Amino acid sequence: MIIDVITIFPELIENFKEYGVIKEAFNKEIIKLNVHDLRDFSKDRHRKVDDKPYGGGFGMVMTAQPFFDAVSYIKKANGRVKKKNQKTILFTPRGKVLNQALIKDLSGLENIIMLCGRYEGVDERVTELIVDLEVSAGDYILTGGELPAMILIDSIARLMPGVIHSIESLEVESFEKNLLEYPQYTRPLNFKDKKVPEILLSGNHSEIEKWRKRKSEEITKKRRPDLFDKSF
Fold this sequence. Notes:
The chain contains 9 helices and 9 strands. The chain is α/β, with parallel strands linked by helices.
């Protein structure tokens, strides 16, 4: 997979890829990450990428031209990628909320182009002309699209074959089958008078699986009833 990120803060993304599972994905060349400075595509002599909003209002709006030219450049550079296997994503609070199902769908693409907005938003013509999908990290406001981009890169990377060594661990994680994950324990057996449940020490794997499933259902029903309703 090739991931292209367009941002006015390229150092944020460059630093992010140096840690943990993400670093392994790039070192193994499972994912190729290209980070593009939006200002490099500005036609303004001061490399400006924003302007005052038409109709008045507070703050500044990011202009369409740099984004349009950046995406055009990237698509030309990634010319071997078929259109059906490529998506341009804009991170915005009005977008489709990011969840595990969407992440799985996106992980099957060959190329994702991520647009990171800032300030009061991005000129609507960016969405109209070049964006395939608007994505929101959740029902809250961030100062820019870089954090959602990193979340999406991280969540996609761990699904790619060869990144997470245990495929089984992916299958039992939270949000698989619309259930939250069951409680996990490790040594010591007793910590601050809190003991590991006896069933986990029994060696009876069939009963352990039943316990874990029951706990997943109980936790989901209590904390995320919206998910619990979808799982049945």
